[in-house]
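#structure-requests
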Amino acid sequence: MDLVSRVQGILLKPKDEWLKIKDEPTTIQQLFTKYAVILAAIPAVAQFIGWAFIGFRIPYHGGSWMTRALLYVIFSYIFGLAVVAGFGWVINALAPNFSSTQCLVHGMKLAVYSMTPVWVAGIFHLIPRLGVLAMLGALYAIYVMYLGFATPLMDTPKEKVPGYIVVSVVVMIILSAVIGVVLAAIFGVSGLIGLF
């Protein structure tokens, strides 16, 4: 798998790319080390540059705000990858409820590759005020995930795909919100949760 061509395929021709992904042999470790770890760094690095050099500062009394911003970005990067892994696990665990085939690797493929638009749109965080545009990536990610379920990557019957997606998206939102609350508690920052 070539990283650049995979990203282009997911963003520009997701339906065709899912057909390639379905039959592609891979491991969960490869999904993360050769894909997720690299792409998840885009929003993390963009956030740090935006916060540290372009104009958004994490409110903090005492110490270096740049150090605080760096730690916040590192923790959000690590927790973000954990959320994606948890999301893949949940997709797999929900499979029997939607007459789908359980396969942890396929569940992880859906979770990881569906996040591609979110990670790429994370570049908008370079300019803190444009960070909201990263939400467009999240909306496109739902469409990409829909096509992944419809491929059918999990052998989900067509009539069960909408329900499977709704439940999956709700789980992802809950996982992300929990991580946002944890990060806010660790760093004492309340206004940043909406910037993810």
